[in-house]
Amino acid sequence: MRGIIVSKGSVTYLTQEKEKLDYLRKKTPFDRFSDKEYGRRWDKIRRFMDAHQLDCLLIAGGNTAWQKGWSNIRYATDFIGSMEACCFLVFPKDGDPAICGAVPNYAHRLYRSIIDDLRGGPSGALTVHRIEELGLQSGRIGIVEHTSKMPRDIWETLKTKLPSASFEFVEEAWWKEVRFPLSEEEEVWMKKAGKIGDLCLEALRDKLKPGMKEDDIFATAVATSIANGGENENMMLIGSHSMLDPDADDTSARPRDRILKTGDIVLTEIGPEYNGYEAQCGWPITFGEPTKEYQDMLEVAFEVYHKIVGQLRAGNTTEDIVKVGDIIDEAGYKSGGPPLLHSLPSGLIGNGPMVPQRGQFQSWEAIGRPFKSRELIAGRLACVEVSLVRKDELAGVFLADSFIVREGPPTRLYEYPTELTVI
């Protein structure tokens, strides 16, 4: 399925025949949202453009951060690319959407899309050409970025080739006004992601034992996720450490050449995704009862976790959560780096408040994420993370859990027990 060549004036690109796409869609049993759900989304996107006086949106996507960079394009079209660093869904207020810059050689990704206009080639040039086709060379164009800033070469192409257009970056408003609150269908998929996470944690609890390798922890979690409908690029961060002679306080994206032993603690941070909808979690496992030092750390961590969950109500503020995090300092520990709270999918620009511990304010400001208190909103996603480490950063514990914020108590996406697992 290599695509057919289309030439329009000075522009040439690869695309796919509608008949072939339709044939493959019928033969492929992907779980999909309903036509009604996509109609709701498209109406919401166009109302968003009306509210911001925009003629068109450029919704960026790319294969970054465990595929989370595709989140917004998937939201509108169910398209997910392969190796693209950045391509765009050109979504006009009037007219048909088109994906510009996709790699057109991967049928299993292309035919997931609910739209047929899939143009393979240089992202910048094809995006400009589609805007010209729509007659919007002088229009107001909104840009929704993904996990990283727009590539400089594409930005220069847009400005140079469309000198009369005006551009506005609308990422934060997009998440607030379009992506949230979740619909009923989206909540179902979020709960499916949580169920996959439950199964991953249960598999670790039931299968891990001293004598296995750290590789086996990753293999068990990844295989369980994929076998139960998870995507093949889920976030899996795992680390094992000796509680008797600790030398690290965190998880890792890669397994170490290490044998699990009695007296070890396993820290997990996993983010199973069901068709792009992620529910993160992280619960510790120990081989044998925890040492006195680790028991003390866990008691503080669970206290902070439960108090943050108690603050997850619409109308409360992120400053309320920062105050709970002060318990970590008061107990003589410090945060290991992750935020106390973030939205989902994680790592995406503007998708919700990131709440650092108070001691992290200065370092977060240095990387361009200064803290400002925000009100929690019903229908938004929240991942609670408690990373508590010893002052020398050679020992620590980590907890994580995912929720949907409500007017009253939040909806938890997991059923796994909120406690230490002892093997």
Alpha-carbon Rg, integer: 23 Å
Query: Structural class of the helix and strand makeup?
Result: alpha+beta
The low-confidence runs, each spanning 5 or more residues with pLDDT under 50, are none
The total of helices stands at 12
Strand content: 15-25%
Quaternary structure classification: single chain
Distance between the termini: 50 Å
CATH topology of the largest domain: Creatine Amidinohydrolase
Helix content: 25-40%
The tally of structural domains comes to 2
CATH homologous superfamily title of the largest domain: Creatinase/methionine aminopeptidase superfamily
**Sheet with the most strands?**
6 strands, mixed
Overall geometry:
globular
Strand order of the largest sheet: 6-5-4-3-7-8
In the CATH hierarchy, what is the class of the largest domain? Alpha Beta
What is the β-strand count? 19
